[in-house]
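Example 4.3 (complexes with small molecules)
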Amino acid sequence: MSRSEAEDVVKLLEHQKQTALASKHRKGQKATNKPTRQMLDFSMAQHRTPLTTATGAGMYSMRTCVVSFAYPPSTTPLKQLQEITLSQLKLETNHTGKALIVRTFDHPLRHVATQNIVEDKEVNVDRLSVYNLDPSMPPETILPKGAIFAIKQPYYKATADGGYSVRVDHPSDLLQLDVENTLVPAELAPRCGVFQEGGHSGEASLRFDLYRNRAIVNLYLCRYEYACSDALVSLIPDSFEEAGDRREGLNSKALYRAGRAEYHLENFTAAKNHFEQALTLTPEDGDCKRELQKTKERLQEETEGLFNFTAISNLVNAKRNKVDHVSYLGKVEVRAGGVCGRGLFTRCDIKAGDVIMVEKGFCVAFSSEAGTETYRIMNLNTNRMDSGTHATRLFKTVGKLLYNQSQAKRLLDLSDGEYTPKCSAHIFDDVVSVDTFQTQAILERNGFACADVRSCDEKEDRKDKLSSSTGVWITASCINHACAGNAWRSFIGDLMIIRATKDISKGSELLMPYAVVEAENNKTQDSLQKSWGFTCDCSICAAEKKVSSSHRTQCENITKEIDTFLTDHKHSTSARASKTVINNAEKLYCRMKGPYTDELFQYLPCVGLINLSLWLCTAYSTSSSPAKVIHAAITVLRDLGYEVQLTGSNVTIDRTHAYLEPTAVHAVMYAAQACYQQGKRDLYAELEEIGKEMYVTFYGELRGFEKTYGAPKCFAETWCEGVIGVGAMEEKRILPYTYTVTVS
Ligand SMILES: [Zn+2]
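Answer. The structure with zinc ion bound is encoded below.
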């Protein structure tokens, strides 16, 4: 984002905040000049644009979702609340202890909120706006025409267009009522006879059918906990003789549904038991056999960490980025201690490059996904604004929590930055009371930016894709920050793969950089402070803090010169850098090296040197001897904190202080090719292995390695034999990338 765009964003946020504060002056007032039924009808027709069918991008200007000033959701059962009518509502007031019962009388529409117009028992009318629901849910399923709703603790407010609206921020405050519900006023739903649970066996049989059928409805609605309990309640006992021959078939069906629900809740042992039990009743059930097989595979992944990442990667694409796989967390545990009181620790030794854990996303909003629209989300409570999939991520997460209490508790366990009051995720009126403000606070602190499809596809142009996908991975969120760290994440679909960037011993805390480490340390600290509310005190930052102020000023000035130099002298395959230009780069490098004294940075990464260091290595690779290239490559690695030595046919590499980024892979591969040119095949092979391992750690899989680094073996072979000239070689040469990593 440019400086002027950033200023505009700040202005917009400030304007929204002032508007919200100004409207508070009307608190407690009665609404005047309320629109009539005809006016509301007209305004609905005006707003009815084809938004629900559009993909969003490019067709409409970006919409803004404002996270208003926080208040908690209702935690009182509906029948204990006192009824209130539309005419009694006061502006900018949260009517605690009250419930409004209304009937919708138009077709709903959706902008940022889902809206409809409603009438109450006094035949008064107004607008109802429900926020924070999954945009992939059609508005007709949220506020259908002619349905009756109870709104707990209704919030009534004036709208920008001069009208008014009953606003629901916590979807758990909105309940759709059956016409049979005794709380529905007769004026809204004339009743004609009430279904009573009787003692006849015919009714008992009907009840089993109803539960069994409701289980499948709940499965489709992703209300897995309800689906599972409905399915199990619908099991017909042996003593119920009336069911006769049908009993086994029906119970198998119910067990199958319970199994599917448990599968979605990632309770694979329970799922397996249900499927196996179903198969004892109907041994030839093909669906059940297939689900059982899948469940066994998940159990194996979960307990043994056996994944075929290539196969998984081959199946993901922009339309199918949610993979049917499970988390593997066997090598890690969350416990007290570490850099900030609680963290994720290893339960065994882990070697550099090995998988530490694999985690399936708890909730991921892919930018390519249907129903994902680009919003700005402005949080007036935290003065934070994000654009991209952040709003969709909030809506999806809220949707997941509303009907799955165990999932809500998992998410609420994460840091919310001291948000108060805490939500306890209790169930009232069959809905989990989800505090959307607290949920947003948790997402802001624990979200990750991720690849749209897979990390290795995003090597280039990453900067243009910053507004892309985001999600939450609960266990990975427990990993604390360190600029260099010992772990790195990559993505295949919604699967996050975390690998070790260095050898890690049993019982160590896992640490991962949250954001890009900048050449100027105060920028790194600023971004950490703004996004997560802390500053870093890792070994790199501790050394940076000790840099003298004169050295710091020197660094800042040279950093600007380096940036200009790198912009002006991009490497190209058609033109080599001249001797003078290389000479200038060398001088610039020496000047920048000055402030990175051995006293402070002897083994630590020198972040400000990395890009220029790689530029030099690339320049030498087209114009200098292999020995010089190797030396330059080792210098790049040294600037990244790797201590590398090539002795005889051996590579020794000390990664204690290393900072892994793609530059490291480039440097290793430059060194590898130069070794090949010198005829040192053993060194070449060893370095190539290291390069591949770093690449896989960074991108999650080897896909794209050959394409990026050519086919080094055959290419080096032909080059050494002098079959093709330097010009032809350059086409296949390694191209340096400048790359930054950004975390939401
Ligand atoms: Zn740090």
